Task: structure prediction
Amino acid sequence: MATPPPPGPYGAPPPPPWQGPNPYAQTPPHPAAGYPVPPPFPPGPPSPQPRKRRRTPLLIAGVVVLLLALGGGVWAYLGSAGKDADDPKAAGPAAPPEHEHKTRSSMSWKAPAPKGEIKDYVASDASGTWFTETTVVKAEIRELKVYSRKDGSVLTTVPLPGDICGERTPPHDGTIVLAYRDGDEACSRLTLIDIEEGERVWTTELPSAYEDGEQVRWVVMARMEDRVVLVTEDGLRALAVEDGEEEWAAGLPGGRLAAGLAVGEGRLLATSYRLKGGTAADYQVNEIGPADGRVRWSWSVPEGQRPSVFASVSPTVVGLVSREQFLVNQFVALDDKGRERSRVRVAAKGSETEKGGPEQTFEPRCGSAADGCAAAVVADDTLYLPTKPGEADSDAGTEFNKLAAFDLATGKVKWSATAGDKRTVIPVDTDGGNVIGYAEPTGESGGRLVRFDAGTGKTSLYQQHPDSDSENERDAYYTTHPPLDVYLDRGQFFIVCESLTGSEEFVIVAYE
Result:
């Protein structure tokens, strides 16, 4: 495992988190450390749940599916699930049709991982996976690769002069903006890549050091179509995607410092804080006007907590952690004016402040800031979370859990259900108005995708993987602990490695 660098005056970048679709459907980015901005989180041990997961806007059959572009979490507007279909007033818009998919599918191809020793903790982060109808676009350590979705062949490779070292903003209109290192030095270059042409369009220079001389190692940024917004040492800065020229620069009220950014559905969210005696305090969640950088609303985080991750931007669902911890203990849903709607507790009450805590009763597998959560899906004003696995058979040592649906209007559980066969399941995505869960393979049987009815939790089979290949599937999924990220895009299933150590055999495993 790559060794993180020793913390400097501002601390090291937060631990790499977990890491999903858009016309370039997506995955991920990273947490808050930044383009001259001290990370708001105290240095500490790596989170036991690393890796990134994120999703970005995807337009399918006239239905907007927003798979967070700065994290990971997923939000989809899928009509009105769970209402009485016989009542025309209650029915609302019809759920979109389910994507074509195989009910029985096996591994189709694997994309090999780059070999060699990973010397740099930041460089080991290879998050950034997006899908089109025909390709898979992957941001790797020092290059952008485009794979054929059909057979995994490499269609395009765009090498970079240095390691990618900032948020992996999802592509838009066939281009992507990435930050990379100036050789082995600071994270001080920003470039626009034309994916189809396989070439860099422009490159601009960013500050290479903080005011005290500490080298910048990570750039926090978010892309909103034709604009890129960056966190700076004293606020925010927006650049035009067309030419990299500055459009505006803005500070936050009251001398606040920005930490993380997340975008979705035309909205830009930020986490911010104040420095008091050299310590981050007074955390907030802010909505920022993308055209001018002005704060539209602010929500103050309760004392003793800090905002860690956005599970969704629209609706806004933010995960909170206790000051000295890295595991989410609760999610808070906010309305479009920044007012609290509901809370969903994911940790045992009172464990938030315990040393080594919290004791999670639900396991969303969250990253930091916009990285989202690998095992949390937000759809149709419902938050889907897996419960912590429990032992199903003490002799066999197998585990199982449930998938729970929380109403974001109230924070209450709508239903919970198992995936059957004493399996562990995590929510992956939505399709046809229902949530799809990945039931992990066992020693004897292959993994499967299970369809959970959005209104009732009733289950049915979406896709079965072969029992004869269960060992290979387990080896792929459990290459590291925690397991790798999984994606479902247009009915096709993928296992993706978003954080490299140098020993992995592959970065992508695609099913039929």
Remarks:
- The two ends are 31 Å apart (CA to CA).
